[in-house]
Amino acid sequence: MIDILYEDQFLLVCIKPAGVLSQPDATGSGEDMLSLLRDQLKARDGVEPYIGLVHRLDRGVGGVMVFAKRQDVAGALSTAVANRTLIKQYLAVVHGQPNEASGVWKDFLYKDAAKNKTFVVERQRKGVKQASLAYATLATRIDTPAGECSLLQIRLHTGRTHQIRVQCASRGLPLIGDGKYGARDHGLPIGLWSYRLTFAHPHKKGKTVDIAALPTGEVFGWFGEIETVDLNEA
Fold first, then answer.
1. Domain ranges (residues) in the chain
2. If you write DSSP's letter for every residue of 164-193 in order, what string do you get?
3. In terms of pTM, does the model score above 0.85?
4. Catalytic residue set
């Protein structure tokens, strides 16, 4: 069962388990959120529901996602994502410790579609997009099973492919479990979790949907009780 945190006739906010696809992939293998939610709501309500994808999380990443229950709502929420009025926050466990406890990282990113990998580059050119995020270091421990690690809270200003992963790795702070971007930690699960979504409800004037859920699992458990900070304005 998918854990639904908020639902009305227009949309729902739920927890994507790590290891589940956001949508079916070309191979047709593995569970995906669209299919799971359709099946769950159909079994509950007895009718075939509309479930519209608004944003994606990588397969290994779990956490809060929003889905539309009407086509017009899917369009409105997708516009909010594009206009950066849907605020996404994450928790990330990285190797090492940032030089500054908090701040803003800005980079030029280039996505190599053939390799499905994103790179930081030095200047603007064709195919290069600007990327920005704000972060705060919540905790650092030197005695984890992977050595010195830090727990970061991150607010995305842009939504580039693998943005958090590559911006951290380019600063010598690869995410735990992220072998694609340089981690060497023997198969630990990736240390990334979609922690919080904040957005104006597209059909309820004056209503803000603000849903947060803390992660569970091995790498986040290294830091005990997690105390987050307010990054909504960062």
1. 4-221
2. HHHHHHTTT-PBTT-GGGT--SSSPPP-EE
3. yes
4. 58
